[in-house]
Amino acid sequence: MTISIWRYSHLALALSSFVFILLASITGIVLAFEPISEQIQPYHSEEFNEVTLAETLQVLQDTYPEVITLEVDANQFVLASVMTNEGKSLNGYINPKTGLYLGDKIESSKFFQWTTNLHRSLFLKGIGRFFVGLCSLLLCLIAVSGTVLILKRQGGFKKFFSTIVNENFKQYWHVVLGRLSLIPIIIITVTGVYLSLLRFNMLPEFKATHHINFETVLATPKQDIQDFKLFKNTKLSEVKSIEFPFSNDVEDYFTLKLKDREVIVNQFTGTILSEIKYPLVKFFSNLSLNLHTGKGSILWSVILAIACVNILFFIYSGFAMTLKRRQSKLKNKYKKDSCQYVILVGSENGSTLPFANTLYEQLLKAGKRVYITELNNYTTFNKVEHLFVLTSTYGEGEAPTNANRFLELLKTTEQNPKVSFSVVGFGSFAYPNFCQFAFDVDQAMQHHFQQKLPVFTINDKSVEAFQEWIKTTQLPLDIPKDKLALKPKLTNTLSVVSKTQLSDHPDQTFTITLKTKNAKRFTSGDLLAIYPKNDYRERLYSIGKVNGHIQLSVKHYENGLGSNFLYNFQLGQTFKARIINNAAFHFPKKAPRVIMIANGTGIAPFLGMIQQNKKHVETHLYYGLRQKASLELYQDILKENLQTKHLSNMQLAFSQEGKKTYVQHLIKHDAKFIAETLKNKGVILICGSLLMQKEVLQTLNDICKQEGQQSLSTFKNQGQIQTDCY
Ligand SMILES: Cc1cc2nc3c(=O)[nH]c(=O)nc-3n(C[C@H](O)[C@H](O)[C@H](O)COP(=O)(O)O)c2cc1C
Q: CATH number for the 328-484 domain, one of 3.40.50.720, 3.40.50.300, 3.40.710.10, 3.40.50.360?
């Protein structure tokens, strides 16, 4: 079933029952405090687990002239109904070892009784109980459909508990808390349904019926109650209750209710007159009651209360997300067949829509006739000249819900082949298949239309990147920054540990080492996002994790926003930034061989990866620099890692010294080695300038063809070629 069906079911179930669920959760939180308030009463006995029934009965008989009943409640408090020597009737807690009267029975407070009624039946008696039972079932189905959504989102059972990218507060916590409270919520709802079914007699109710032949019951040989074998062998912790004989008549007896059976005992001889084991339904009824109410366990009551609080959060965050998805509705001024531009949008959670809407408004403002719609609404557009596709990627490189039929529609819809198109991918570096769906769309569209611009990718809703793309369209558009810009959350405080001087390096490059509080939170290949002007303008740097610190390699530009911001820091100074998990560019966990290709400052993540290569995975570095002196910045660390075999081999290409070479030349020279690496499931990592990336990919493509390998895109799709270029 597709994700949308599960999502609609999840939403429809929530919509149809949320008022009841809201009430049940609020009252549930209150009621969770009832067992807690009982448990903290001082009626616990240290010896409870050791003492036998015979011992307790003995002390009771010694202390009180008459004992009517004895009960052990879910809190393991021993409750007795007795008459005192003064003729007073007492009903309360006793110490099972000494018989001491500890206090009167706790009666449920009026407030808890009121809340219980509201929780169980909304004060509507039978009909209310029916609705509450039904909503329990609906909540259970909501939990199940939510689980399926998490499974789809995470990409299967194995990844159910793997890390979730925190892109959006409500969405993140909806999923994180959903996973954590899944089991308690399923238990609450299943037991709720069970208790409702019991209430409506839809489950067989058990009542023990004993058949005793009193003709054969004898009053001899008489024994003292403390000598009854059964009582001596039964721990009080196994007992639920005991009713004492009404009179001295031999036909009156002890009725002993244990956890698993009911026993009738001759009051004179201690002989067992009848014994009935409880069926499973009785066990489930008790279990359901205790699990649903939290009776007898402070820990479970607290878990139930937390689960109810979480349900309230789910109601809030779920509806907030739904509203957000619906807010940025696509509205059109012109009819579809009268427009020269068509914007097709793919979005899962609505964050791509403001970008698409802004583009739409700006095109209108520029006097163009433009139509905007979702990718799944793709159809014929009689006058279209250019198709803009703005789409996010979801799942594991898949289409967002409102675009999942597009590739099929593209094949079956007749459209003028002279139409040009350009695709913008919205994605996140935190996912291995960065903007994959945008690339798939671009590939597919190339079979039908003219590609005007190569796919443009945008990480993490970057307004700046979007503006950059707008420039490449050469349309007279001006994107208002403040309309789209989100205030970034700067979650990491960094302090400057060391920094090299520009004068030390011939290429206007410096390295800066930064200390962060939590070194476990990042690894080499992740990105550091800085905001030099404390506004929407973001600069990204590839991180090398060297000696637990963040090491950046930065090219300095005279008016460079990011490079000046970083270079002007003094040692010890601190600033706030954001570390972005760049899962698509980490040192591979499993690879027989790793080839690293870099130029210039692209060496930064590799310096860290090499140092982290504790397993000595065969690692080769191809590095392009301008001149020999350019290497000085990195010489020591590279030498050291070559010695320790963290790095197996290094080849350098100098573009401005000696026989001018570039990394692609080195790769071409080692074509056989590269081809063999790819064939044997090795991984190639590329970091540096986009120009270098283009050349290297071209060379790799040639190698694949030359050596009769699978296509380059197959290796890319298998994650064997990973790039982080700028
Ligand atoms: C569950 C989930 C899976 C995602 N998978 C990918 C992915 O495979 N590749 C990618 O580049 N981005 C991925 N993203 C990031 C989104 O594409 C990105 O946040 C985008 O801006 C969301 O836009 P939307 O709200 O319009 O769907 C994923 C996001 C989520 C929540």
A: 3.40.50.360
